[in-house]
Amino acid sequence: MERYGGGAISVSDYDPAWPEMFEQERARLQSVLGTPILTIEHMGSTAVPGLAAKPIIDLLVGVRQLTEVRSHCIEQLQALGYTYIPQYESWLPDELFFRKGVPGPWTHHVHVMELSNPRWEAFLSFRDYLRAHPDAASEYGDLKRSLAVAFKDDIVGYRNAKHDFVVAALRKRREDE
């Protein structure tokens, strides 16, 4: 079982400082990574106003070709204090994953992937659905709080237990379009 790095999983009330924290980190990433980066998006629960979240800023970094940026990106992000987590590639082969603040509590996660990766659209669709549906966001926040209590430091169990909610929200998002 993968353990959560900061001890027990903690879900906090929404912090209005999170968007600014994203903007500051986005600017750092853009200045260091430069032109291979096509766009950087704020994703995850900290990107949804009013939503309770683990206090970790998730950044989604879009690139044209992952193979072109792999070595450059890893070195540059390590220089900014990020740790590359290569074991995630076994279940996310088309994505590079980094954590800042290791061994926990983490402050930032960076997901680097091509814009054509289906997870790119899924991440942003889920975020946008929650932004457009405050009742769903509130329900999701309540779910996360209860799962944090139930799963304590079992981050895989916590993540898996949210899966059905995420799938249902993405289905509703498609129906809304």
Summed up:
This is GrpB family protein. InterPro entries: GrpB/CoaE, NT_sf. This protein is an alpha+beta fold and 177 residues long.
What would the keywords be for this entry?
5-stranded mixed sheet; single chain; alpha+beta; 177 residues
Notes on the protein architecture:
This is GrpB family protein. Pfam families: GrpB (PF04229). InterPro entries: GrpB/CoaE, NT_sf. By secondary structure, this protein is an alpha+beta fold. Helix content is 48%, strand content 17%. A hairpin with a 7-residue loop joins β4 and β5. The model has no long low-confidence stretch (mean pLDDT 93). It has a five-stranded mixed beta sheet with strand order 1-2-5-4-3, sandwiched between helices. It has one domain: Beta Polymerase, domain 2, CATH 3.30.460.10.
User: How many strand elements?
Assistant: 5
Approximate shape: globular
Beta-strand portion reads: 15-25%
* Class by alpha and beta content: alpha+beta
Name of the CATH architecture: 2-Layer Sandwich
Return the domain count: 1
Percent helix, as a range, is: 40-55%
- Unreliable spans are none
Taking strands numbered 1, 2, ... along the chain, how are they ordered across the largest sheet? 1-2-5-4-3
In N-to-C order, the SSE pattern is HEEHEEEHHH
